[in-house]
């Protein structure tokens, strides 16, 4: 039986040089065989990883330590004074890893914006991989955002990039007005939840996960969303992911992902030809929430740990 202290979260904080206090939730023993560090997507929080933390810590019999954290400006984490971009998010991730398991082994799990931050960490600090970091799961990730650098001259990509830039400028310029408009449509509204389900989920979306995602997106500050969208638009690590070729890497995507286009997923796959590609055909962009057991199985295998059968 897993000791009770290994199934409850420990609250921790990591402070960055620019004053952002990053909230961490840690579950499992300090001397675990491996530490799994999980980063969430834009507008969400580490609560999206709570079921995975429970399953990995308890199902591994205490062999895994799971650290899930709120990206800056999200959930319980502060903003700091620096403008958020992908390099800054990668630096934050590096600090979380150093605080929790500086000597490794560490398995990184990232979803969407969190997956891009993990990829940027591999590009910026390749020395961490193969030593401290021994495995990586990138869920709904991309090697480049829809900005000009990633457009490849295609008209549709240019339009997507232009629309994203316009939305980013609007939300960043008048965040209070955007927040005010969002208050007119509560997150419990069937219309709002239906829009979230249609955009972020695939077939058979769990209602509780749709409700959680809707609530998190609804309460995320508009200026944080704006900076996050700008970070995504400027993301480009193509040709810089050699570090991920040195460690087992899984690319997990939803077959019905309407947020990350298929060409972006294929571009990431081309960057990492040796990675394992897993497509959950019925899932959407929120594939970790839709396929939690699948995600946990990948993370445990990357950590070299066998999970007990699901209850």
UniProtKB/TrEMBL annotation:
- GO MF term list: hydrolase activity
Q: Which InterPro entries match?
A: AB_hydrolase_1 (IPR000073), AB_hydrolase_fold (IPR029058)
Q: Does the keyword Hydrolase apply?
A: yes
Gene3D superfamilies referenced in this protein's UniProt entry, alphabetically: alpha/beta hydrolase
Answer whether the UniProt record assigns the keyword Cytoplasm to this protein. Answer: no
According to the lineage, what is the superkingdom?
A: Bacteria
Annotated AB hydrolase-1 domain ranges read 36-297
Q: Which UniProt keywords apply?
A: Hydrolase
Q: Which Pfam families match?
A: Abhydrolase_6
Matching PANTHER family: ALPHA_BETA-HYDROLASES SUPERFAMILY PROTEIN (PTHR43689:SF8), HYDROLASE (PTHR43689)
Q: Under what name is this protein listed?
A: Alpha/beta hydrolase
What is the originating organism of this protein? Nocardiopsis suaedae
